[in-house]
Amino acid sequence: MRFLKVTSAIVLVMMSATSMAREAIAPMRLSDALSTFARNSGIQVVYVSTIADGLRTKGAPAGLEPDAALRALLDGTGLSYRFINPRTVTIRSSQAEAPADEATPPMSGEDRRAVDGTLRLSLVPEGSTAADEKEAADEQKRGERGVVKEESSANDAESAQLTVTGTRIRGLLGEQSIQPVLTITREQIERYGISSLGEIFRYIPQVSSFELGQEIQSPSLIGTPGIDVTSNRITATLRGAPLGGTLLLVNGRRVPKTGQSGGLQGNDAYNLGGIPLSAVERVDVLLDGASAVYGADAVGGVINVILRKNYRGTEARINYENTFDSDVSVRTVALTHGFSTGKLSALVSASWEEAGSMMWSDRWFLKSFDRSFLGGPNLVSASSYGYSGPGIVSSVSGNLPGLSTNQAPIPAGSTGTNLTVADYANAGPLPEAFDYGDYMRYSSPYERKSVSGSIEYEFSRSATVFAEARWGESRTWSSTTPVVGFNRTVPAGAPGNPFDVPIRVTKWFFDQPAPEQEAVTENRGVTAGIRGEFLQDWRYESAMHEVRSLPDVATRSSSLNTTLLAAAYAGPNPPILLYDSTAGISPNPPGALEALLTEGADAERVRERTFDAQADGPLFSLPAGDVRVSIGMEYRDESVDFPFPGRSLSIHSNNRYTSGLFSEIRLPLVSQRQRWPLVNRLEASLAVRHDRYSDYPEATSPRYGLLYRPFSWLMLRASHGEGYKVPTLVQLYRPSTQGEGSFPPGLFFDAERGGETIDGLITIVFGGNPDLKPERSENRTAGAVIDVPFLEGLSVSLDYYDTRYVDRVGSLGLTDLIVLFPDAVTRGDNLPGDQPGWPGPVIGYDSVAFNIAVNRIAGYDIGAVYHRSGGWGNWTVQATASKTTRNESRAAPTQPVTELPTFNLPVQITGSVFWERGALSLGALCAYREASIGSAATGPSIPSATRWDWQGNYDFGRSGWSAMQGSAWWGRVLADTRVHLTIFNVFDEVPPLRNTSFMPDNSVVDSRLRRYAVSVTRKF
User: Fold this and answer.
1) Left (φ > 0), alpha (ψ -120 to 50) or beta: where does 842 sit?
2) Contact 255/629 with Cβ under 8 angstroms?
3) What is the pairing mode between strands 247-250 and 302-307?
4) End-to-end distance of the chain based on CA atoms, in angstroms?
5) Eight-state DSSP code of residue 993
6) What is the pLDDT of residues 280-329, one digit of tens each?
7) Coil, strand, or helix at residue 426?
């Protein structure tokens, strides 16, 4: 168990750290100083995020006790502090404090906005909860008299309750949830040095597949469009869930889907495109099904992107990323501005990003389809890719007239006119098969623009209106192979054809520019609503939300269209095809061959409107605490249209209406205050949701959970939930189309014909399947979180999961279709030499989705976090590992359950070590994925991969130098500037090569190899 060894080694490193003394805090921004104080002292600091904006501290000398250090830090800022208990302190405005003997005034708009989730938390000891802290404070207040001093806490940040992913009941600050939730904070995002939201998925081991929003070309179908509307999509799936089975949210609300895939499969999934990374506060990853809370599509987990709120000030960021040996630059500019005045607050973020392209020829291990130099197969095949040089001609049947063979090369240097049979007879041997690796782009260029904004106004405690909007546009450009005529007919008498009969030509037109294609996706989202408080501690929120995804693709095939070609030959100016294009000069008029290429446009119009209303609060009290509930409703109207030029739409309705009712209850059964032995805390939860669909039967999805703390440092949790996911509109109603292409040799095999490889031209049918049934799922999780009592700062977690899908919607590769669903395969006539009983060769197949009977995936995650502070600086060490232990599937009800290899679900580990002292911070990140095992006979299908990244950060605002230079212009410029450098793939590792094709797997180590990113952030 290599991943256990790696995790254990990281934990041992954390445990070996020695204690360190306190250090001085230099003059700097107050928020940074409070973070430094929290790390140095181990004390949790909680405050409303906006009260520290724009404030600076004079610092604090070394050796002070926490109380004295806080007084020094807050001197002159107009803020004060109060210890809740020895481990937690709150910061608030001195002017807002009320005398102890007076009733606390109503919460201000600023503090109320903090309750909505914008609290600043300088340090949260892993595993501690706000409830535990409050109970510890109560114990301290009881003292020898045995009474608790009652104090109003309406203005105390420690009593604020936050929106938590995975539940609609507000949780207390720092509270552990029953379901496992992984949070990536803004600080972590900045440490990673990434430029786009999609790059975050590389650092989440539980992500089994993801798309970065940039087209990555790979050998697949030759002659088909090389780009589609999913090229701009940013999406991910968790733990092997079906595509679209992981729900993606922004601020707890759904994002649009993008599903049409021009010429390929119509697999739709949620799309996070159009969200500027500068606007992201954190990313929550719920590692469990949540259909009972969020409805359908949450069967495989939830990724919730939380945007920044109540930021006050202006922040500008410039990022530049590139490789060390080629120009594949990524340039990003982002600007964020927010203000808060009285009851009104607003924030807007905008970003622009542009990326260049990288060719296969830029990497030695990609330059050729002949993989023999790497010990692999030669994938260059004339039957799939045609011939190099001038090309060849062939007969329709039998030998070419006047020749003793059915094929002949086009004479070198030919202009396509005045050719004779003798010229072909003397043209020499057939040329080599064509290797078009030089024409492949590994990554295509793109441009992204995005804007997001939010505004809210508080009329009163019971009514705050708010609105949010975001817009994003992504453009990707792609070039296909050179223009090709693959087995195209040249009639008798056409230029260059001296045979007096129709012949066929197969050649590449190297003198023609590779056709360019463009994919554009526009995403829009707008939300407007009202929220507030009522009764004693109840809150409500109601909103209308609309999202749209508008992808468009303009395509031009690289293959000569047979219909257009035949029409051109019948016209007055027939084209000349039988010439030597390697000379770089075409005998055809400009644009003549381009006019024979098929132009197309794929488009999709996705719209989803949602109205929701919900409320939560305490129902009644038990000895262990308040019983809290949430209730709500949701109505959703979604539609998808396919306005393809010249194509008729499906006769089925492309709309769906969904209404849902949901409720959740949290029962505190036992708490610390009851002093039960071996029961520090015991809590149960129940959530249920009932949905009605306009086109499918209604369904109810329940979820149960239990949390148990036998000791304050140990938490055990378990949950069980059910899910119900109806097929998407794209899966049901996508218009039927077909394409033609050929596969690389060795990709698919025909078991009915002795296992021969399938190559040559294949006709593929695409479209929806209106007979799809809903998917059902069952999720079980169990885990533990340990705050190691003998080593302060170390927290370890272990979570087991077992997910079972019934009637999962999916598709199979051609090899599996031949065996399991032979009716989906089209075969031609038998060939000479076929064995008795063999069917004819495969000439086409139907790729529409269908219901896979059963799929079961199980495994577990291990995580460890260690914080250590002292005179030598502050250390943070973190590691997370995910392992799949079971992957069972039954493709059809009549098929037996098959234990599949964890081909796409290997062990994955991420780890990081960060050190910070004063203005300087340094860190290293590691990502590891074990080898994927195909079978005992074949060995590793994909070898293991390890990537190391390094980062360094210097914050001039936290340095004493900038304070000393404050009177100079450079001191003022640098005072609030942070410079960040990241080196990705430090050791320049080459991505592992698949043992079937010897093509790289880029999931951990991508083919750009070692690269760097530099960012400069300035606050105003």
Assistant:
1) beta
2) no
3) parallel
4) 50
5) B
6) 888 888 888 888 888 877 888 888 988 887 778 888 999 999 999 888 89
7) coil
